Amino acid sequence: MLDIRLLRENPEAVERGLRDRGGAELVREVVAADAERRRLLAEAESLKAERNRASEAIGQAKRRGENPEAVMARMREVGDRIKELDAQGKQVDERIESLLLQLPNLPHPSVPPGTTEEENVEIRRWGEPRRFGFEPKPHEVLGEALGILDFARAVKLAKSRFTVMWGPAARLGRAITQLMLDIQTREHGYTEVWVPQLVNASTMLRTGQLPKFEDGLFKTQEADENRLLYLIPTAEVPLTALHADEILAEATLPRRYTAFTPCYRREAGTYGKDMKGMIRQHQFDKVELVKVTTPDQSYDELESMVRDAEEVLKRLELPYRMVLHCAGDASFTAAKSYDLEVWLPGQGKYREISSCSNCEAFQARRLDLKFRPTAGGKTELCHTLNGSGLAVGRTLIAVLENYQEADGSVTIPAALRPYMDGLESIKPAGS
Predict the structure, then answer these.
(1) Does residue 67 surpass a pLDDT of 80?
(2) Into which CATH architecture does domain 4-102 fall?
(3) Which residues contact 191 (CB under 8 A, 6 or more apart)?
(4) pLDDT at position 308 over 70
(5) pLDDT band at residue 75, thresholds of 50, 70 and 90?
(6) Counting Cβ atoms within 10 Å, is residue 245 exposed (0-12), middle (13-18) or buried (19+)?
């Protein structure tokens, strides 16, 4: 959530910042509602001061034996008006909050302008795409031929955009997950956390998922709305909300957390897109990275988070590139975002496998997540960051496609073999 003082003091700058992101048209509504709220507050405060003066005058008149009926009648009118103003003020407050919840974060000055992914800026590449002596197959063809990816049975069990993974594929996904967690916890200082996969509406709202992404979420059906729970679209949600309403000591920051969870998304609005295979699923696994920092630390921590995610791709020797999101393609909560895109030879292009973002104080303001400076003084809002370290399913796809052989087998990357009892390849049945 943006600071309303920023909109009040410099609405033009906010409008410019949101030009490519959407929401600029709401800025003036917020400013007008805020002005109305302050007008109502000023009138109410003036009437309350009048009532205090009148109360004193009424007491003096009674002590003199005088009848202060006229003043008392006026005070009844004042009391009624104060109640009316308070009710109107509450309505305006709700209107302001509703508008603020719809405004995305402001982009960092280093973020390039633009509205689509075509305007993202490539920062660097690592690794050279393999040159095959045969036509590489996409993972869905390769996996079905190996008997390890089963889309037909997944449709029977659920519907499209789900996958059943048999034997070596399930084991490969588990190995990938373990490698990711080991790298982040043993080498990069992240604390592993086990978190709920169902969270309440408040947690979704305060991390920026609601109201923006309501249509993309799975949720329970409850007669009592207060008992409603949402399936998490990413472990970013519970990890970021761990310290809601807390004041952390500056000396304990940055805090680095990681969690492996299934993630659930309705993929609303993506009908017909990536329907084949495992690229876009309703249920998928991910290792998430989250940091809570001071404002001074957050951009250094963003760069290190990207490197932490990159390390997984390097260990697996998967070619990738890093891109900086333009203003309009960054996530709703992010001030600055990088994507890591892995090379998929079956598609002949790079596809996103991780997104790392600095949300600055946007989520922390909703969460009331603060820190107390070591040097003293008033508390300040923390900065929060999140990133994929990585999407497990897409990493499995990348391994299958990049390590496939002419005979239909798949070589297991060296980094994964210790997690698979030394297995060197997945071979077609009967070979």
Answers:
(1) no
(2) Orthogonal Bundle (1.10)
(3) 185, 255, 256, 257, 258
(4) yes
(5) confident
(6) exposed
Confidence at 430, pLDDT banded by 50, 70, 90:
low
Instruction: Please tell me the distance from the alpha carbon of residue 9 to that of residue 6, in angstroms, as a whole number.
Output: 5
Domain with CATH 3.30.930.10 in the chain: 117-426
Distance CA 308, CA 390 (A): 10
Mean pLDDT of 216-241: 95
Rounded average pLDDT over 143-171: 97
Task: Check: CB of residue 342 under 8 Å from CB of residue 322.
Answer: no
Dihedral (CA of 211, 216, 220, 223) sign:
positive
Question: Largest alpha-carbon pair distance within the chain?
Answer: 111
The angle that helices 24-63 and 69-102 make with each other, rounded to 10 degrees, is 160
Q: Please provide the average confidence, as pLDDT, over all residues in the chain.
A: 95
Q: Which fold has domain 117-426?
A: BirA Bifunctional Protein; domain 2 (3.30.930)
Which residues have a catalytic role annotated? 265, 280, 352, 355, 394
Cite the residue boundaries of each domain of the chain with CATH code 1.10.287.40: 4-102
Sign of CA dihedral 214, 217, 222, 228: negative
Are 113 and 327 spatial neighbours (Cβ–Cβ below 8 Å)? yes
Least confident residue range of 62-71, 131-140, 267-276: 62-71
